[in-house]
Amino acid sequence: SGITLSKDGDIFATGVTTTGSLVSNGAISGTTGTFSGAVSGTTGTFTGDLDVAEDIRHIGDTDTRLRFETDTITARTAGSERFRIA
Fold first, then answer.
1. What is the pLDDT of residue 1?
2. Which SS3 state, helix, strand or coil, does residue 82 take?
3. Is there a contact between 63 and 76 (Cβ–Cβ < 8 Å)?
């Protein structure tokens, strides 16, 4: 049925859909995932690709960003382009 209980009490399940909150006292891991809303933490490590739709913004200064466009990367400060790689 897709549910496994390990000898030390861990539960593993496949095909589970939740409609409420998930609270964990430890790490949550998986092979794929989608987040819709704020995701926060102190550090992060990516072992594969990191897909960004358009911009990486600085939290304390939101008009400072790296922007990814078709075959172009730009660095912006004070809302203006400062550097372009084409």
1. 60
2. strand
3. yes
